[in-house]
């Protein structure tokens, strides 16, 4: 096992990486879809590189960030980006407080400042949904300087040695804009694909131990067919989403499988032709 990860984890907790690794599932529940991906990302974290996770909706990006947080016993602060995201939502804001009859102005620290000072993980979700002019405020945080001059207080903040930044994007989605080069260049980037094969089976069996082997086989076959049609360009990528598949299993505990797939996969897509194609594929497996 990679010693650089071991050393870092020992600094932060007691259990050694590599002990008790009999399951594909990491602490926090993440399963790596590609051999080495999990470990390569951990190395990026240990080297204090900002990590960019690129993958479709429901591919486990948030789960991966939570698993890193559990692995290093490091709390995580999340920022959900939108066009309304501003410097105050990132850094914090001033507020008036009254104490013992006196009025003060106090600065309430936002997620970036808290994570930097406490050495926590900062998770920036859908970073490409933010307005491009909002994020340059983070440039000095994300490069070798690892510092920030808070424009609201003038305070110069140097990041704690364990401070970690993980960002996630769904590329090419409505409402997203391409990340500007200067921002993207500060990250090391990892493509996060959907789970397939034994890894997918493992997560299903872990979350739905009561599911019959027949149901698991059927759903795995349907998922494979959906993936083929995604590759053929006939279905959008989310048709093969792991989140949707897990939703199917949850529903299928209570309603017939066909309806479960309709609600959890087909109806989530906007295109009627795609919905029809999904249900036709399902009908070849579910009687
Ligand atoms: N590789 C994986 N390992 C463990 N769980 C996974 C994995 N991929 C998907 N999941 C499960 O699928 C669901 C969705 O995962 P998650 O919310 O992390 O996706 P996401 O990529 O962050 O999605 P979005 O882009 O829509 O926010 C969760 O229940 C998660 O446990």
List the helices and strands and how they pair.
Layout: H1 3-12, H2 37-46, E1 51-54, H3 61-71, E2 76-80, H4 87-91, E3 92-99, E4 102-109, H5 111-118, E5 121-125, H6 139-142, E6 147-149, E7 156-158, E8 164-169, H7 181-184, E9 188-191, H8 197-207, H9 213-231, H10 242-252, H11 257-264, H12 272-285
Helix pairs in contact: 9-12, 10-11
Task: Please tell me about this protein's structure.
- This protein has 287 residues and is an alpha/beta fold.
- The chain folds into two domains: 3-191, P-loop containing nucleotide triphosphate hydrolases (Rossmann fold, 3-Layer(aba) Sandwich); 197-285.
- Helix content is 40%, strand content 16%.
- It is built from twelve helices and nine strands.
- It has helices at residues 3-12, 37-46, 61-71, 87-91, 111-118, 139-142, 181-184, 197-207, 213-231, 242-252, 257-264, 272-285; strands at 51-54, 76-80, 92-99, 102-109, 121-125, 147-149, 156-158, 164-169, 188-191.
- A five-stranded parallel sheet has the order 2-5-8-1-9. Strands 3-4 form a two-stranded antiparallel ribbon.
- Helix 9 (213-231) crosses helix 12 (272-285) and helix 10 (242-252) packs antiparallel against helix 11 (257-264).
- The radius of gyration is 22 Å and the shape is elongated.
- It starts with a helix and ends with a helix.
- The model has no long low-confidence stretch (mean pLDDT 91).
């Amino acid at each position: 096992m990679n010693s650089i990860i071991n050393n870092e984890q020992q600094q932060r907790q007691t259990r050694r990486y590599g002990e008790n690794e009999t399951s594909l599932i990491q602490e926090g529940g993440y399963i790596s879809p590609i051999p080495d991906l999990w470990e390569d990302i951990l190395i990026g974290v240990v080297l204090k590189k900002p990590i960019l996770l690129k993958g479709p909706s429901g591919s486990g990006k948030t789960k991966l960030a939570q698993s890193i947080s559990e692995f290093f016993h490091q709390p995580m602060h999340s920022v959900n980006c939108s066009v309304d995201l501003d410097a105050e939502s990132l850094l914090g804001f001033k507020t008036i407080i009254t104490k013992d009859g006196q009025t003060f102005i106090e600065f309430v620290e936002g997620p970036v400042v808290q994570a930097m000072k406490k050495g926590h993980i900062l998770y920036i979700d859908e970073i490409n949904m933010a307005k491009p002019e909002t994020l340059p405020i983070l440039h000095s945080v994300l490069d070798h300087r690892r510092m920030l001059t808070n424009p609201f207080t003038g305070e110069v903040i140097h990041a704690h040695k364990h401070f970690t930044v993980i960002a996630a994007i769904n590329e090419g989605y409505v409402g997203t804009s391409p990340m500007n080069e200067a921002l993207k260049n500060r990250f090391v980037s990892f493509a996060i694909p959907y789970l397939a094969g034994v890894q997918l089976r493992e997560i299903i069996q872990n979350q739905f131990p009561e599911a019959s082997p027949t149901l698991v086989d059927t759903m795995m076959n349907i998922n494979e067919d959906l993936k083929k049609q995604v590759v053929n360009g006939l279905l959008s990528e989310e048709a093969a989403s792991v989140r949707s598949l897990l939703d199917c299993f949850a529903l299928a505990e209570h309603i017939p499988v066909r309806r479960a797939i309709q609600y959890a996969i087909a109806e989530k897509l906007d295109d009627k032709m795609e919905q029809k194609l999904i249900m036709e594929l399902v009908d070849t497996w579910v009687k």
